[in-house]
Structures are given as structure tokens and as C-alpha cells.
Design brief:
The protein has one domain: Beta Barrel (OB fold (Dihydrolipoamide Acetyltransferase, E2P)). The protein is 25% helix and 46% strand. It contains two helices and five strands, in the order αβββαββ. The protein has a five-stranded mixed beta barrel with strand order 1-2-3-5-4. It comes from Flavobacterium aquariorum. This is DUF3221 domain-containing protein.
């Protein structure tokens, strides 16, 4: 009985470690800025990825950690963003926490 419990505990720990390793990078997107729409507290950038996926990235000074991390993206720029991703029935959205790179 003790061996069964130990085996189950080790198996659960292994599963947890593997699942956490697989999640790495899931909250990052890279692509080209297709459009920019300004709002009250920031703006939404429409990003087209290499896989032809469209994300609506909400970027505000508060969410990126202050004015020193805030950048205004322009159409045609290649960007990498990190943040919280959620999906609706027809769209993919991201609340941007970090602007990794802009080219």
C-alpha cells in the first residue's frame, strides 16, 4: 500500500513538472502589426502571426508596468509580446504585460 501511494505521488509530481515545462512560451506571440486603434487608457494593436492567426493585443501604461516600458506600436512593425491570452468564440485577445521586442 505504501509503495502504491509513493508511486502515485511521484507520478503526479512528474506530471506537474512536465505540464509546467510545456506551458513555457504559451503566453507569448510574435507577428506583424496590421492595425492600431486608440482607446481611453491605451490602444489595441491587431497582430498577424506567422501562422496567420490574428490577435487583438491591448496595450496600456498600467499593464506594462509604467511609462518607461510603454511603446507606441506602428503598422508594419514586427513585434514580440508577452501577456495574458484569452479567446472568444471568434477572436483571440491578449492583455500585454511586456513588450519584448519591436523591429
Amino acid at each position: 500500500m505504501k509503495n502504491t501511494i509513493r508511486f502515485s505521488a511521484v507520478l503526479m509530481l512528474l506530471f506537474f513538472v512536465i505540464s509546467c515545462a510545456c506551458m513555457k512560451g504559451k503566453n507569448e506571440i510574435s507577428g506583424k502589426v496590421v492595425a492600431v486603434e486608440f482607446g481611453k487608457d491605451g490602444y489595441t494593436a491587431k497582430i498577424s502571426t506567422d501562422k496567420n492567426e490574428i490577435y487583438f493585443a491591448v496595450i496600456s501604461i498600467v499593464n506594462v508596468g509604467g511609462p518607461q516600458n510603454y511603446k507606441l506600436l506602428k503598422e508594419g512593425e514586427e513585434v514580440s509580446l508577452k501577456g495574458e491570452i484569452w479567446k472568444t468564440e471568434t477572436e483571440k485577445h491578449m492583455k500585454v504585460k511586456e513588450i519584448i521586442s519591436v523591429k
